Amino acid sequence: MKKTKILSILLVLCIICSCIFALTACSDEEEGKEFDPTSAKIALLVNGTLGDKSFFDSANEGLKQIKAAYPNTTVKAIEMGNDSTKYRSFVDDACEEYDIIIMGTWQMYNHMSYATVEYPDKKFILFDYAGDFSDGKGANNLYSIEFKQNQVAFLGGVLAAQIVGDSSLALSNGSKQIGFVGGADSPIIKDFLVGFIEGVHYADPDFDPTKAANDPANANKIKVQSSFIGTFLDPTRAKDQANILYDMGCDLVFAAASQAGLGALEAAVENNKYYLACDSDQIRLFADQPAKQRHIVASVLKKVDVAIFRAFEKIVNGEMEWGTNERVGFEEDCIGFIGYNADIPQRMIDAVEEAEAKLRAGQITVTSAVGSNADMSIVDGIIYSAK
Fold first, then answer.
1. 34 pLDDT tier (thresholds 50, 70, 90)
2. Residue 158: CB partners within 8 Å, gap ≥ 6?
3. Among residues 40, 48, 154, 227, which is most buried (max CB within 10 A)?
4. Confidence (pTM)
5. The CATH number, out of the four listed (3.40.50.2300, 1.20.1080.10, 3.40.50.300, 3.40.50.1820), of the domain defined by the range 37-147
6. CA nearest neighbour of 266 among 245, 288, 290, 295
7. In CATH, what class is 149-303+335-385?
């Protein structure tokens, strides 16, 4: 009887040991298994909502491009809404379910920094803001992307200057007044604005670049009136500000304000004036709304879709350098100028294309509000003296 009992105990111990060995082997096998991005689960967390026909819609297009090129991936855009107090729970939920988490803008950086530490086995892509990787800081599972939006905004300024200086165009009085509506008083939005202003000065025949903008010699220059509304999510506020700018005599308003920019477009329609769009090809997107499309002169593109797809391809091809930031522009096809209103004559288009060629060749240098070399006192001086 004792012998049978001992054998039974030994048998149970053997079974337990076998189970432990099997589980350990399985675990080791899983740990040793290479991550296959072509079958990854990818989440885009939108700190707002889709439908802005601008910044966030462009990011979502990047997600769609990944799915089209790699059909075994699982992709989902998660709209977190406007209540930032709930963002952390969205981040946690996404990190539990997805392999690669994509977020954008400076508003999400603290959440991203938290997640890279809390979920070290996940991969993170942050767009439109730089991670801090100086002095060994930052995470080795994060890649961040900045854009050279000042350069493409320069092209917008070249076109805008020609439009407001030409009363022969249907919706221009030749007022030599331009308006700018920014979603936030931030370095990225100021990067748009300072590039835009320098493009205006470049194309303005009454501007002497050898003199300061507020020098008496430049008294007849095209003026750029700018304001920041403090939100990317409130079209009504952008519309109100754009109406003020049109009332001041502006023939054109450029809005770098994501969803809020749609309000500035409404103001352009109501005032029968021109509007310069941002981040998506709005002439194409409003093809079914000709009453709005009529007022869009062109679109300044920060190609978030291209940048996101490009980042994913870096992962697929084993070229991704985690723990780094990259600033992308014309060379990477991550910025561009697209779509022209039928009112725009070829000579104006030629001037924009000539300026783009010089930018690409490094023959034009544009002041920037972004990066370690940015001098905000110079940037603010350019903005102030343009008025």
1. low
2. 199, 200, 202, 203, 351, 352, 355
3. 154
4. 0.88
5. 3.40.50.2300
6. 295
7. alpha beta
